Amino acid sequence: MNNDSSASNPQELKRSMNLVSAISTVMGTVIGAGVFFKVSNVSEVTGSTSMSMLVWLLGGLISLCAGLTGAELAAALPQTGGMLVYIERAYGKLPSFLLGWAQVIVYFPASIAAKGIIFGTQVVNLFHVDAKMIVPFGIAALVSVELINFLGAKVAGAFQSITLFFKLIPLALIVIFGLLQPGGVTVSLFPVTAGSGTGGFITALGAGLLATMYAYDGWIHVGNIAGELKNPSRDLPRAITGGIIGIMVIYLAVNFVFLHTLPLNALAGNESAAMDVAGKIFGGMGGKLITIGILVSIYGTLNGYTLTGMRLPYVMAENRELPFSKYLTRLNKNQIPYVAGLFQLALAIALMFVGGFDTLTDMLVFVIWLFYTLVFVAVIVLRRREPDLPRPYKVPLYPIVPLIAILSGVFIIVSTLITQFTLAMIGIGLTILGLPVYYYMQRINNK
Fold first, then answer.
1. Residue range 8-33: average pLDDT?
2. In three state form, how does the secondary structure of 280-312 look?
3. What's the whole-model pTM score?
């Protein structure tokens, strides 16, 4: 990855985005399927309404500190590749490659697979068909989204804009009408307690945070717009702060309605919890219409991850970092990396057969937070190593905010290792598999 290439020069980026468009980008990137479907997992692992609300609040605060920290590197290094650039600048080529490898092998395919599973689950529940059809319906969604993307970036981008509108409709209706009608459950934040059978306060807190971080995931990609903001030093922290606070308010409101409408035992482990809540609030037909809106939201999020995900193996292959690079760089007549897209699709479908929604999302969150934490540390490393690096934006309350982000990342990683050791080892193992690939490609390229 050439940090000095003219194509990546921040002076050549068109600074056309204002604060409103930046906040919209933050919220549109983050809000997806997690807010609707992580309530079942969070309710199950926390065992109480107070702990459930606490982890959603803490997840937002952690994301805020993380976003404000990562934004410093985004503003200083607004280049194609985002996190790959930050990691390489601070630690070298190998860690950067492992991040790219982890995203290609785990993060994007697992994200797509998880969304396919939850899409299939909602279709099965909506039309009351055999549960064996969950994976086939999910695969159909994945394939159809892939075909849409093969039509070109313009078509996929327009489709993303349309689904963003539908994404917000069910959220708004659930919150507004859910808050207006009397519920059967009292929800309060204090005193915070963990339910019986959760393993205690710390265990419940760690497992709950791991679940919520999937719903908040996506904030790191916001830094990629730093070079296109009219005033990044002013608008980037405002966009991240305003966007994540807005997301946190929406998530807290939605989950309050969920917890207020149905008892905790009806939500815990129930992957159709969003549909059940919608049915309780709006009645049978209204609930089905809201569920269709949620399906459109999932489909749009699936499109976004497919659109961005297939570009990563293509970029790595262009740099001759992956085996079969000459095939992964092939484009169709619409200038889409279709071989890279098919590779990603195949991995996602395979993962649908080996893991459920929560398993896949917990694994991808664990793996990506290993690298997020390295990004937070990189802010401190580069402050010391490159004090003269131009920084249009600096993280506020340095070093307190970065330290909060780092400690939060360490807590998520350690708690996952303690509570879900096997899952964590699978994620680490898949990442380490990149080592022989890296050295093999280094040898091939140096011949």
1. 64
2. HHHHHHHHHHHHHHHHHHHHHHHHHHHHHHCHH
3. 0.83
Cβ atoms of 160 and 304 closer than 8 Å:
yes
What is the C-alpha separation between 376 and 370, in angstroms, rounded?
Answer: 10
Q: Tell me if 363 sits within 8 A of 106, measured CB to CB.
A: yes
CA distances from 229 to 79, 161, 281 (A): 13, 20, 41
Q: Read out DSSP for 227-257?
A: GGBSSHHHHHHHHHHHHHHHHHHHHHHHHHH
Q: What is the mean pLDDT of residues 223-232?
A: 63
Which residues in 283-423 belong to E strands, given as ranges?
A: none
| Range 285-309 average pLDDT | 82
The one-letter amino acid code at 355 reads G
Model confidence at 187, in pLDDT bands (50, 70, 90)?
low
End-to-end Cα spacing for the chain? 19
Q: Is the dihedral of CA 251, 254, 256, 262 positive or negative?
A: negative
Mean of per-residue pLDDT scores for the chain = 84
Quick check: 144 and 151 in contact, CB under 8 A?
no
Neighbours of 437 (CB within 10 A): 16
**Whole-angstrom distance, CA of residue 263 vs CA of residue 276:** 11
**Cis status of the peptide bond prior to 191, with omega within 30 of 0:** yes
> In the block, which residue shows the tokens 């939605």?
254
Give the C-alpha separation, 46 to 54, whole Å: 10
